[in-house]
Structures
1.
Amino acid sequence: MSVNVLHLDHVTMQFGGVVAVNDLNLDVDEGEIVALIGPNGAGKTTAFNCVTGVYEPTNGRVTFFGETIVENHPQGKMKKLYAGDDSTEYPQVISQTPDCITRKGIARTFQNIRLFSALSVFDNVLIAKHMRARQNFMSATLRLNRKEEERMRTETKALLEQQNLYHLKDEVAGSLPYGLQRRLEIARALATEPKLLLLDEPAAGMNPQETNELAQFVKQIRSEYNLTIFMIEHHMDIVMQISDRIYVLDFGKLIATGTPEEVSSNQRVIDAYLGVSDDAEN
């Protein structure tokens, strides 16, 4: 029986009069690679931001391994702050911060690479390792726990070696070729020891060779790190090659879901998305 990792329950995100995500329901099960696709402006990255605590959704709930991490029901589910029939009722809001959500086991990359571009490759990954540090801020700042620091440096070295990046450890991250910067960003996400990895257009800006290498890389890290992967991608060759299931958004609404074969033959999807250019950017 499959284990549900991520569940979005009637998630809506509204900015003023614009509904970026409209009543979205989806599931990602353990071990899957699930893709979220759709035209530019369909609401894909907004959905990711709701999952990772960047946005508090206007309505709906997000659960991770059955635990509610984000919830907002302004006109539905309520909770009473005081006992008694005359108590005041308020909307139930649960909004964990991005760092708390990361500690629970959700890591992500971004549509636009967000490395510490002036720092070395090694330091970019080491910083992420501190998310799992077993020391407080003061001891880390004063370097009072040398064993803990050494453990994180050893784990950083091992991770860079596994990702074939260790020979670049002293290179400034911003000086790397684009494809290697993408790979480093994924390595930094892996350093937080996630159970669920969200990839936001990982192939954006890559040439065909880099794109093919990325597809193999994503499958490799799923196996090596026992990961579940949820990704946004415009390169349909990657989507069709490695996805177990696909969700399709159009103007914030879910218009189709299914296997790559089912989605690619869905006329509504063809009309809304597959028949148009696959330019990047949401």
2.
Amino acid sequence: MKLKTMRIKNKIGSWVVIAIVAISITACKSLKVASKTENKYTPGAYQSSKDTSNTGTIKWNVFFKDPYLIALIDTALKNNQELNITIQEIAVAQAEVRAKKGEFLPSAGVAVGAGVEKVGRYTRDGAVEENLPITEGQVFPNPLGNFSVGVNASWEVDIWRKLRNARDAAASRYLGTVEGKNFMVTNLVAEISNSYYELMAYDNKLEILKQNLEIQKNALEIVKLQKIAGEVTELAVKKFEAEVYKNQSHLFYLQQQIVEAENRINFLVGRFPQPVIRNSAAFQQMVPDTVYSGIPSQLLQNRPDIRQAELNLSASKLDVKVARANFYPSLRITAGVGYQAFNVKYLITSPQSLLYNIAGDLVAPLINRNALKAKYYSANAKQIQAVYSYEQTILNAYIEVVNRMSKVTNLKNSYDLKQKQVDALTQSITISTNLFKSAKADYMEVLMTQRDAIESKFDLIEIKQEQLSNMVAMYQALGGGWR
């Protein structure tokens, strides 16, 4: 009879387990969520060029030749506060990976306990105390002590790879933070370089303005002499004076721009305001280096932001698997071994005080299913979002490179033509001044020629700065600067 009863109980237990698993699997199958697969396609070449030479793979301290700029970048990579904050974020992500690994492994602990228990006379334990002597002729003490020492362990068996997928997702996000740091390094290198070239451009504008002021002051003296001789009126003198004052005022504006550009670099380098060492005299002779773009597919490996987006996408896919596994039953095994006695002197008596236990729990969610579904739908939506973000990052990288390549040619043509304009206007200053001295040209012609000449020189410097900045931007767009 007992054997038959045990068989019936075993059958009931088996059917309960099967029912739990069936309900869980059915619940997962009933979840229909839209999915999207990322597209890793990139065009085969830029402008029909299939040369695989890629400047983006060159280290920044080889790409840049200016020793002062190299020293600034090197200092910034050590002292920049924002970069150091990002490095600590990497440490946080690394700790998260360790935490997820810990969840995958069994947990164990040592426990020591002591207590006193008084049970009611008509409870089960109380009835046992009344009728069961500890030793011959002795009854249970009242209240009864309870002392224990032992080791307990608990382990969730990762049947559906839920814990391993969570661990791998955390690892992908950790690697993503590393790529995020690399992307920040790329941006930092580019920002310092652009600010450095901007500072050199301001220096050259200041020098040109000072030279032009000398020319204008000489012209003013000539006009004053001509007024005394009765060749020109007071109006001509005032016009030349106004032009001198205007450029003297602009002199202070440029000096302020230089101070701000220096301090912008100092902030990026992580130091208090101080002069930035540079060789601005060589600015006009600087020629942007040739930047080789390679082929578009190399962006997938060279650009840290693309790699970060790809790692985040991998993590979001694993998050979906973790959310789906929550619908399946989970198996947890617990075990313990130790000593327990009502008196300390019996605590380590073997085998009388020795106790051990082992148990397995199979648990499946039946009631709180809406919360699990919400997490599952959320994980799916985030995965699709990560796909779009990944595709957008690739598209943005490709367009950046194409724009920069086009700008190289257009800026070169613009610079060559602007140089011809500067040469012509520089010669016209001398011509107009000589004509004015011999009364063959009006003073307004001299003033307009001087204005046009200085504006064209400023434009030429700005195009030169833009050429150098575009060289940096091209290097950055190809994924250079973080190695």
